[in-house]
């Protein structure tokens, strides 16, 4: 990892069973940020799925940033962050937000959602992807439980 960041991907997945009640209540209560296991630069991924009643499952930690999904540019102690929409799922976003600029110690929460038809039955699946990213080493493991310096919300209605 050549940029001093801590990245946390939170991916919440569901089907039509959790679009209505009582599933939607559990889904909407799922966290979009978690306390970090340590304060060192790393990439963490947490999955919350309908089939596991939206309980968090931590995936293996990495030191590599997915350069296809995330563009980072550092200049004069300012970090430019751009989340790329790499999912081949609806809805496509043709007008995307500008990159977010962060000073050291600041963090961004960037959210985007999608739906797609899959499997043998053609039923819809849904995903909310939340990127939590802090520039520089955080001073508190609970940084992503607070209010972000910048928030980009690309969520849209998923029919």
UniProtKB/TrEMBL annotation:
Domain of life from the UniProt record: Bacteria
Protein's UniProt name: Uncharacterized protein
């Amino acid at each position: 990892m050549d940029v001093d960041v801590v990245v946390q991907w939170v991916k919440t997945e569901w089907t039509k069973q959790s679009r209505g009640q009582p599933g939607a209540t559990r889904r909407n209560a799922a966290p979009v940020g978690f306390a970090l296991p340590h304060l060192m630069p790393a990439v963490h991924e947490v999955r919350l799925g309908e089939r596991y009643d939206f309980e968090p499952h931590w995936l293996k930690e990495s030191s590599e940033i997915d350069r296809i999904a995330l563009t980072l540019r550092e200049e004069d102690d300012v970090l430019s962050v751009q989340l790329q929409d790499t999912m081949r799922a609806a809805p496509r976003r043709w007008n995307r937000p500008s990159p977010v600029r962060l000073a050291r110690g600041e963090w961004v929460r960037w959210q985007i959602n999608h739906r797609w038809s899959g499997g043998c039955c053609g039923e819809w699946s849904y995903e909310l992807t939340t990127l939590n990213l802090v520039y520089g080493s955080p001073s508190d493991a609970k940084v992503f439980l607070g209010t972000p310096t910048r928030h980009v919300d690309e969520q849209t209605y998923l029919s």
